[in-house]
Amino acid sequence: MSSPHSILFLCNGNSARSILAEALATTLSHGKFIGYSAGAKPAGNVHPIAIELIKSMGYPLQLLRSKSWDEFGREGSLRMDFIITLCDSAAGEECPYWPGHPSTAHWGFPDPTAVEGGDESVLHAFKKVEIGLRNRIELLMDLPIAQLDREELKERLQSIHHHIQFGQ
Q1: Residue 7: pLDDT over 50
Q2: What is the number of other CB atoms lying within 10 angstroms of the CB of residue 95?
Q3: Does the annotation mark 7 as catalytic?
Q4: Would you list the domain boundaries of the chain?
Q5: Phi first, then psi: what are they for 56, rounded to 5°?
Q6: Active-site option among 95, 131, 141, 148
Q7: 54 partner at 20 to 30 Å CA-CA among 9, 125, 149, 165?
């Protein structure tokens, strides 16, 4: 087996969506991908509901922390193969230079931490994002990455999001 692909999920606060994606990519792919996450303006903590969902995946909780995307844009940083933004504000931010020119895409999801209406509504929003991310990551795992050129890979990566309706 070839070495795993590194995939960085970006969101503004790095407390929910990108953290969930990090854990899902790593656990679902069984070594094909290693997920990472970061934010433009990190919240400094991981949302408790995200922690609970990730705990059920078996992902090591000690790896979870809200961090800046600057950690991954520095010279000598881990080289990413893919970078996926998950919130519209992160997609519009001035991103750092990414060493290695990774393939990029935007998979926008509403912020589950912004949902009003009580604990049950927030939990439902988190689960909806988790399902949407899970479906997209499973499609990503099925891509014939080694057989696609850079442009084809970028198109396929972006088309994954458009192929699936949110919440499915």
Answers
A1: yes
A2: 15
A3: no
A4: 5-163
A5: -70, -20
A6: 95
A7: 165
pLDDT category of residue 121 using cuts at 50, 70 and 90: very high
Point out the catalytic residue in the list 7, 8, 10, 11: 11
Answer whether CATH 3.40.50.2300 is correct for domain 5-163: yes
Residue 16 has pLDDT above 50, yes or no: yes
Model confidence pLDDT, tens digit, residues 30-76:
999 999 999 989 999 999 999 999 999 999 999 999 999 988 888 88
Residue 95 annotated to the active site: yes
The answer to whether residue 164 scores a pLDDT higher than 80 is: no
User: Which of these is catalytic: 21, 46, 87, 122?
Assistant: 87
- Give the span between the Cα atoms of 151 and 44, in whole angstroms: 35
Pairing of strands 82-85, 5-11: parallel
pLDDT for res 96: 65
Note if 11 is an active site residue: yes
Residue identified by tokens 């792919």 is 29
In this prediction, residues 126-148 reach a mean pLDDT of: 94
The sheet with strand 5-11 has its strands ordered as: 33-39, 5-11, 82-85, 103-106
Helical segments of the chain, H only = 17-29, 48-57, 70-73, 88-92, 119-142, 150-163
Give the SS3 label for residue 83.
strand
